[in-house]
Amino acid sequence: MSQTPTHALPSxxxxxxxxxxxxxLQQVDRVTPYLGSLGRWVETLKRxxxxxxxxxxxxxxxxxxxxxxxYRVQHNTSRGPGKGGVRFHQDVTLSEVMALxxxxxxxxxxxxxxxxxxxxxxxxxxxxxxQSELERMTRRYTSxxxxxxxxxxxxxAPDVNTNAQTxxxxxxxxxxxxxxxxxxxxxxxxxxxxxxxxxxxATGRGVFVVACEAARDxxxxxxxxxxxxxxxxxxxxxxxxxxxxxxxxxxxAQDHTGTVYNPAGLDVHxxxxxxxxxxxxxxxxxxxxxxxxxxxxxxxxxxxxxALENQINAGNAAxxxxxxxxxxxxxxxxxxxxxxxxxNNVYVVPDVLAxxxxxxxxxxxxxxxxxSFFWSEEEINQRLERLMREAYAGVSQMAKEHKVTLRTAxxxxxxxxxxxxxxxxxxxx
Length: 429
What we know:
Among the domains are: 47-180, Rossmann fold (3-Layer(aba) Sandwich); 201-354, NAD(P)-binding Rossmann-like Domain (Rossmann fold), CATH 3.40.50. The chain has 13 helices and twelve strands. The strands form two sheets. A seven-stranded mixed beta sheet has the order 9-8-7-6-10-11-12, sandwiched between helices.
C-alpha cells in the first residue's frame, strides 16, 4: 500500500506563514467544507499556475544603473486569460503579488467574468523616480514579462501607483516587440489608445453600488447614512463623492497624510480638489485633524477601507463601530479581524465582490478593443451597475442559504466556478 509522500511546504505555500498569501490560504481552507465533490481539486487554488520574478535594470537620469525586482503571477487560468493589475510600491513582495493574483481569480469568478486571476508589481518607490525613469522602468518590466502576457493570455491593468500612462507604455512596448499594435494587451489605457469611458471611476462606483444593495438588505437609508473612508484616491474618493451626492454624510477621510474629520460632514468636492492639489487629505481646512487610530472607532453606518491590505486587523477590529464595512481595497481585513467583526454583528461586503467594478469595466474595455466598437459612458455605467447588483444578489443568496458571511459566500460561488472549470477541462497531458 503506497502512501503519498509528505514534504515541508515552502514558506509562501505554508498556511501558518501569515503574509498575504497565508491569509488567502486560510480563506480557502474556510470555504473547502462547502465545495462538496469539487474538494478533491482544492489544491488547484492553493498553488499559483505560474510565478515569474524578473530583474528590471534601468539607467537613471544621472547615468548610474539601478536594479528593481519585478513580479508577474498567474494564479489560475481555467476560466480564461489571467487578469489583474500592476503595482509600483516599495513594499511589494512575491507573497503579496501571489495573494493579489489569487484574489483576482476569486473576484473574476465571483462576478462571473471570463477571466482567471493574475497580478504584477515592481518593488520601487515611484516618488523617487522621474517621469522618464518611470517610463524606462515600465518598458523594461514589460519586455521582461512579455513572454507570458498577451490579449488572450494575461491582461495587465493599473493598480497602486500606476495609471493610464503606465498602461500606454506597456501597450506600446508589447506592440513594438510583437510588430503589431495590440490594444487588448492591457486595460485602463488612455481613451486615445482604446481605453474605455468610465474606467477611472469604475471601482469606486462598484463600491457604491454594492453598498446601496447592502443598505437595502439592512434597511439603511443611504440618503441619511454616515460614511467614513480610508484611502482617498480613485476608489475611496469616487465612492465618497457618490455617497455625498446621494445625500449621505461623509464624516471622515484618512490616507497616508493623516485623518480629517467633521461631525457635520466633509465637503467631498472641496476635499477632492484639496487632494488633487496637495496629494493627500492632511491639512484640509474643512475638517479637523484626528489621530489615525481614532478613525476606526468613529460611529458610522458605512466604513470604506480603500487603501492597502491588512488595515483592519486583530489590533483594531474590536474598535470598529460601523454597521457595514465595504472593502474598496484588496485584502484590507485579516481573517482574525473578520471573526471579530462577525461576532460584533458588523456586515462585511468583501473585496472580491465590492471592488470588482474596476475589473468589470476592464472586461468591457477588452471586449471593445476586440470588436473596435465603443460604448457610451452611460451604457458602460448601466452595464456595470447591473453586473454588480447581480453578483451581490447571488453572493447574498448563497450567504443566506449556508448561513455564512458574505466573504465565505463569495468564495463558495467563486471557488465552485473555478473548480468546475478545472474539473471539466481535466488534466493535460
